[in-house]
Amino acid sequence: MSVDDRFAQDFRDTAGEEPLGTHNEIITGPVSDWATDFSHLEPEWSADPYPIQDELRQRCPIAHTERFGGGWLPTRYEDVAAVAYDTERFSSRAIIMSNFRPPLDEAPVGGSPPISSDPPFHHDARKLLLPAFTKAAVERQEPATRAFCHSLIDAFGERDVVDAASEYAQYIPIRVIADMLGFPPEDGPRFREFVENTLEGVNHEAEERIERMQQLFDYLLAQIRDHVDHPRDDLTTFLINVELYGSKLEAEHVAGTMALLLIAGIDTTWSAIGASLWHLAKTPQDRERLIAEPALLPTALEEFLRAFAPVTMARLVKEDMHWHGVDMKADDWILLSFPAANRDPAQFNRADEVVIDRQVNRHAAFGLGIHRCVGSHLARMELRVALEVWLERIPEFSLADPAAVTWSAGQIRGPRALPLRIG
Amino acid sequence: MGRIAGVTAAETRERLLGAAAEIFAERGYDGTRVADIAAAAGVSNGALYSHFASKAELLIQALRAHGRQMLAEAFAADPGLSITDLLLVVGRWLPLRRDAREYLVVEALVAARRDDDVARPMRSYIGERADMLADLMRAAQSAGELDPALSPNALAHFCLLLAMGSALVTPDLHAVGPEEWAALLARVVTGLASTGPHDGSDGMKLQIDTDRCQGHGRCYDLAPDLFGEDDEGYGQVLGDGTVPPGKEQEARLAAANCPERAISVLEEQ
Lengths: 423, 269
Description:
Chain A has 423 residues and is an alpha+beta fold. Chain A is built from 18 helices and 16 strands. Chain A has a single domain (5-422), classed as CATH 1.10.630.10. Helices cover 46% and strands 12% of the residues of chain A. In chain B, 56% of the residues lie in helices and 6% in strands. In chain B, helix 1 (9-27) packs across helix 4 and helix 1 (9-27) crosses helix 7 (104-114). Chain A binds chain B through residues 127, 130-131, 133-136, 298, 302, 345-347, 349-350, 357, 359-364, 366, 368-370, 372, 376-377, 380, and chain B through 71-72, 75-76, 79-80, 128, 131-132, 135-136, 139, 214-217, 220-221, 229, 231-233, 253, 256-261.
């Protein structure tokens, strides 16, 4: 097997000088007024963003901040949907709101296609991935996922307090995505570092962010090279070989998409599983009802996704404009909060309650429009299996210490410490 | 002291709202003193004011907490109902006598006429109820149950008038037989349906707008007999989209849950 030239050399060396784009001053510290100074990285937001969003929805409803070089936070479903659908005026070339804006010429591909891509390239890059993530395709992962969930619970042994976030929820998506990409399962702990660096380390200094991103891409490049030498039936080999517009993908595209699948597949599902277990631990009537009526789980699961939607995305405004009552400038961020949209009382009856038998539930947890989460079927399967196995094995559980529950900071929100008492 | 020993702030609030609902419904807004509510809840006036800024706020919050949510009740009783059936169930309840507390809304409406402090929060309360109803109407329209040409706001207003009117015209003032009333409601709903009279058993057809569909898969999750996924995960109707008898409810549920509103349910003449 000859070496694939695309990966023989580190593609970053040929990319030339420092990445262009703009860095802004990093502003941290307590928020003075959520309507004019919001920050999703402050502890109040991670602890409980919903009252803040609810208040902003009444007051603004589009909040502003000077942090991150300037950005906007729509809180109504209607406005969130309008941004998600309007790829003409809002670019996806950066989807993590940070202190660095990639240059305009990164569009329409972006650093991690297709999530970072704009039309028309987006459609073609996404099309490559879709067949691997259909409901039928991800069903093939179900038996292994179920067995893995059981093995995690077996490992609890006789203990009566376990951490459902760090000892259960976390490992499930890590294992599933490692299997799909064909990465060694023992590398799991490193994935967690990559995820935290990308999603939670947003306010670190630029040099540190770049250094940490290098570690991720070093790892991916090593995996790619190993797959070039030893092709397998997995997504990495698929991405190395697949063609777009008549030729194989650029090295950056292969690595960028792998980074996307790795990062986006882990934190999100981990959060959804954790938040669902958190709710059930503190709501015995819902837990008992699901034990009594297991057929209700798929409906309840959609409600958990609505009420605790883990994912917030970001966009960049393309040009100065007056939009829904506010004056946006080119390169302003939009923090696209699907969680806020999902709790808009104009869209959902009893929006602030968890109604596990909600029949009509048009939530936006997986986004709206062309960027619908490509892994949504996989995430739903993992969430369903994780909850089925947990409820079957551990029907009785409660919060061991409500004050010890911690939540991740940034755009993906879910429990990171969740001590539960069994029995 | 604001707090009763061993009782959380949330419990105190709950107690206050329960007492307020009881007393306002019995004595009316003007006839109720805030001190009576505090006493009935077993807390001091000061504790009451640490939870509620004014008597008006207490009234509206009591209404939110204890006013009867008939749609939610009907839905909980039978979540499988279509939206129009849900409205019919609630409609049938309207002329029946109710618990005294359920006339709280009457007291609130009367007080809102006299007192601006009540009028303002009452407007937002009624506005929320109307918005919720309008959303329900929109969902019924996209599920093909109601004529999409009708204004959801007008439909919501109509339901609101019936509900509020039923609280004012109690059975001892004027009564209506349950059968005659149900027959009238059924006729009204038929008149509001998309394509004239339908018995819901034939001629229903499904369509997916492929420009809107993004492959969320809610349709084939919820109605696997009616929808499938293509090789890329986009939804497709099975066969020619004709809904077999008995599957109408599944079809409507799938349409009502599509996040992209890509599914139309067509009722044929």
